[in-house]
């Protein structure tokens, strides 16, 4: 049996986290560079600013910012570095950006049922409350963390495993709720084949991929093996 509390095991897990973070950052930078047509069109004013584009563009920028800051935090630094103080200095840019990117991605999916069910006030109120609850859990961890210094770097942010599990489970349920209400709403209203094709590409596929990607970090965080294992799959889950 592996002794997950062994400092050497935690150190090895921390090294895996550091390398995984940089891999995810490189992949996302490549993906962002090849798909920033919307941002470019907004900057060049080829398309008018519209509020539905806000969570899409904000989520992408926030995720890129958070990945960059997380990689900076895990880079080798002076032994005298104040890790917790350094993280607090970049709290808004890092932790807020990371969790806000999750909220924006899910909100981008929730906009569809919110528009489809515009004639049903009770459903829209329910969606607003569900969204507020999602952001509450995402922002709650900003005040419940500490930074573990491992292998000559600030290492990684330690979040309570219960909070981590709650965020992943709530996000999966939230995305499934948005997809279900979108499908039901489209079945009850006249729609073209193009709308269903868009839904299959941007809705069903997205939810299935994110749910599958979040199952592993949810299970590992719930097991609470050690502080490193609790967050080892967190960034890959956000990347997907």
Automatic annotation (TrEMBL):
Superkingdom as given in the UniProt entry: Eukaryota
Key words of the record: Membrane, Transmembrane, Transmembrane helix
Transmembrane domains' residue ranges: 123-147, 167-186, 206-225
Name of this chain's protein: Uncharacterized protein
Biological source species: Suillus luteus UH-Slu-Lm8-n1
């Amino acid at each position: 049996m592996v002794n997950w509390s062994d400092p050497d095991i935690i150190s090895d897990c921390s090294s895996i986290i550091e390398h995984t973070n940089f891999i995810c950052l490189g992949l996302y930078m490549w993906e962002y560079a090849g798909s920033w047509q919307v941002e470019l069109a907004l900057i060049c004013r080829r398309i008018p600013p519209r509020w539905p584009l806000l969570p899409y563009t904000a989520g992408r920028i926030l995720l890129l910012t958070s990945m960059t800051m997380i990689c900076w935090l895990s880079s080798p630094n002076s032994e005298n570095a104040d890790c917790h103080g350094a993280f607090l200095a970049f709290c808004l840019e890092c932790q807020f950006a990371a969790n806000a990117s999750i909220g924006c991605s899910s909100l981008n999916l929730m906009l569809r049922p919110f528009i489809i069910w515009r004639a049903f006030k009770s459903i829209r109120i329910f969606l607003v409350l569900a969204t507020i609850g999602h952001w509450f859990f995402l922002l709650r961890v900003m005040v419940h963390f500490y930074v573990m210094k491992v292998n000559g770097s600030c290492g990684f942010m330690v979040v309570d495993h219960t909070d981590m599990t709650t965020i992943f489970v709530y996000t999966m349920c939230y995305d499934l709720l948005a997809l279900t209400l979108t499908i039901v709403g489209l079945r009850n209203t006249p729609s073209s084949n193009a709308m269903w094709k868009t839904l299959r590409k941007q809705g069903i596929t997205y939810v299935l991929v994110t749910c599958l990607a979040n199952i592993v970090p949810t299970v590992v965080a719930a097991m609470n093996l050690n502080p490193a294992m609790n967050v080892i799959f967190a960034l890959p889950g956000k990347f997907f």
